[in-house]
Write a structure and sequence with these properties.
Blueprint (H helix, E strand, L loop, with lengths): L10 H15 L3 E2 L1 H8 L3 H13 L3 E3 L5 E3 L1 H29 L2 E8 L2 E8 L14 E2 L5 H7 L4 H11 L12 H14 L2 E4 L6 E7 L7 E8 L5 H25 L4
Antiparallel strand pairs: 1-3, 2-3, 4-5, 4-9, 5-6, 7-8, 8-9
Length: about 260
């Protein structure tokens, strides 16, 4: 029988989940020795847990003998993303009612930002992003909001792996400039995409702090409607709904 942890759970399961979280923390690819150091587990224990997850398709070993997420997690992740989206829709719909613009929710998946829910604006001219779309974090409101929750070194590591291609003439393409922008976001509490992903589109976003996973929500629309003044009016509503969303998610997950 598997040993029980001090928290009352199954120790081997807790350790396996810790390893999956460490793989995610390292950008989705990590060596076994690094996992052992980070987890505090012995190499044989780490290797045994990894091999079990490899056999189930949750982890795979690449040509460089580093461990990455396997296809088994994709199905679980897609299902979890759909559930997150459904739980968030009342909050996103309320933002649309309050602002008149499109509301989105996104998560970190590896080094990419993935949109998992959207409530569209009722305007004929509106911002639209397909649910499931993957974008780079440096040039989007939700991406910069998510980056603002990380340490500067981690931000640099992520953009070092992804690169910082220019999507428009307004895209931030320098790691130093991005870190400076992240500092500003932390100070004011919200991020703004000033046409950095798509020309003529502005987005204001906030991280959902305290959520069980790394989330951000945003309001997006044409720059002509979503003026700088309007952004300052919308940011408090986003922060309020982000706080409410945390309560919703924790309640659903039985944490309260």
């Amino acid at each position: 029988m598997a040993a029980s942890s001090r928290s009352g759970g199954v120790q081997s399961l807790e350790r396996a989940l810790d390893l999956l979280e460490l793989i995610a923390d390292e950008g989705g690819s990590v060596g076994v020795s690094q996992l052992a150091v980070r987890s505090g587990l012995s190499l044989p224990t780490v290797h045994r847990l990894l091999q079990t997850m490899v056999s189930r398709g949750y982890v795979r070993q690449d040509q460089n003998r580093r461990y990455t997420f396997g296809p088994g997690l994709i199905r679980l992740g897609e299902s979890a993303s759909r559930m997150l989206g459904s739980w968030a829709m009342p909050r996103l719909s309320r933002l649309v009612e309050e602002t008149g613009e499109t509301a989105n929710m996104a998560i970190f998946e590896g080094d990419a930002v993935v949109y998992v829910a959207q409530s569209p604006s009722r305007h004929w001219v509106r911002m639209f992003t397909e649910v499931g779309r993957r974008v780079l974090p440096h040039c989007t409101g939700v991406g910069k909001a998510l980056l603002s929750t990380l340490e500067d070194d981690k931000v640099r590591q992520i953009v070092g792996r992804t690169g910082m291609p220019a999507q428009t003439e307004h895209t931030i393409t320098s790691p130093d400039a991005l870190v400076a922008e992240i500092h500003r976001i932390r100070a004011v509490g919200f991020a703004v995409d000033h046409g950095e992903q798509e020309q003529g589109v502005r987005c204001v976003a906030v991280p959902v702090r305290g959520a069980p996973v790394s989330l951000a929500i945003s309001v997006s629309g044409p720059s002509g409607r979503l003026t700088t003044e309007r952004v300052l009016e919308i940011a408090p509503a986003l922060l309020q709904e982000a706080t409410g969303l945390v309560t919703d998610l924790l309640t659903v997950n039985g944490a309260r």
